[in-house]
Amino acid sequence: MTRKFWVKTLIISLFAIAMGFLESAVVIYLRAIYYPEGFAFPLKIIEGPIAVTEIIREAATMIMLLAVSMLVAHRWIIRFAWFIYMFAIWDICYYVFLWLILSWPESLFTWDILFLIPTTWVGPIIAPVANSLTMILLAGVIIWAGNQYEMVMLSLLEWGCLIAGSLITILAYIQDYSRYMLEQFSFGEWLSLSHQSAVIERVSTYIPTSFNWILFSSGTALFIVTIGLFSRRYFHATGKTKP
After folding, report:
1. How far apart are CA 68 and CA 71, in angstroms?
2. Could you report how far apart the first and last alpha carbons of the chain are, in Å?
3. 198 assigned to some structural domain
4. CA atoms within 13 A on the CB side of 118
5. Which residue in 79, 98, 78 sits closest to 22, CA to CA?
6. Quick one: which of 39, 112, 120, 221 could link to 35 by a disulfide (CB 3.0–4.6 Å)?
C-alpha cells in the first residue's frame, strides 16, 4: 500500500465522516420538531413536503456515495468496495455524533428507524452497526486485492451469498413493521391512496415488538462466507493475474 493510497483513504474517510455528521444534524433538527421530549416509539407522522423531502434526501445520500465511488476508482468492483466502505463509515459516525450531541442511543440495543425505502426499516442499533463493520471488512479485502491484482471480481457463488445475505437482512429489518401493518391491511390497501388516513393512523400506533435475530444472523453469516470465500481465493493467490 503506497502513501498515495493511504492519503486517498483518509480523504474518503473524512468525506464519509462528514456525511455522518450531516445525517445526524438533520435528525437532530427533525427530533427537535417532532420529538422535543426525546425520540421514542410510537412514531410521529411526518406528512407533506417534509416527508417527501426526507425520502428524497435518503435517495440523494445514496447518489452522493455512488458519485464519489465512481470518481475514486476505475474498476467497478473497486467502486463497489469504496461505496460500501463509505456507507459503513457514514452509518457508524451517524450514531457516534447522535450519542455525542444528544446522549442517544442509550445502548446498542435501543430501537431506531433505519431507512424508509421501500418501506420502514426498524431494528436495534447494534444490528446496523454490525452490518457496517462487516461491510468495512468486505470492502477492505476487495480493495486490498485490487491493489495486488490486475483482475479482481466476486465469483458467482460469492455474489449469490452477498445478494442472498442482503435480502435476508432487509427482511429482518422490515419484518416486524410489515407484519404490524399487514395485520390490518392487505398489501394493496397498504399502498392505496384511498386508505391513506387509516394507514397513517395505524403507523402512529406502531411500537416495535421483536427483531428476528435468526434471520439477521443468517444474513450476517452469508456476508462472512462471502468474505471468507473471496479472501481464500485472493490471499493465497500469487502473481498478477486473476486467481
Report:
1. 5
2. 20
3. yes
4. 7
5. 98
6. 39
Angle between helices 48-72 and 76-102 (to 10 degrees): 130
| Domain contains 241 | no
For 112, the 3-state DSSP assignment is strand
Those residues whose C-beta lies under 8 Å from the C-beta of residue 237, and which sit 6 or more positions away, are 149, 243
- Minimal CA–CA distance to 106: which of 94, 91, 95? 95
Contacts 24+ apart (CB under 8 A), 159-162: 161/222, 161/223, 161/225, 161/226, 161/229, 162/138, 162/222, 162/223, 162/226
CB-based contact 34:46 (threshold 8 Å): yes
CA dihedral 211, 214, 220, 224 (to 10 degrees): 160
Q: Which pLDDT value is given to residue 204?
A: 83
- Could you tell me if residue 1 is inside a domain? no
pTM of the model: 0.88
Query: Domain range spanning residue 164?
Result: 6-235
What's the number of domains the chain is made of? 1
What's the one-letter identity of residue 9? T
Residue 43 makes CB contacts below 8 A (sequence gap 6+) with: 113, 203, 204, 206
Mean pLDDT confidence for 183-187: 82
Asked if the structure places residue 64 within a domain, the reply is yes
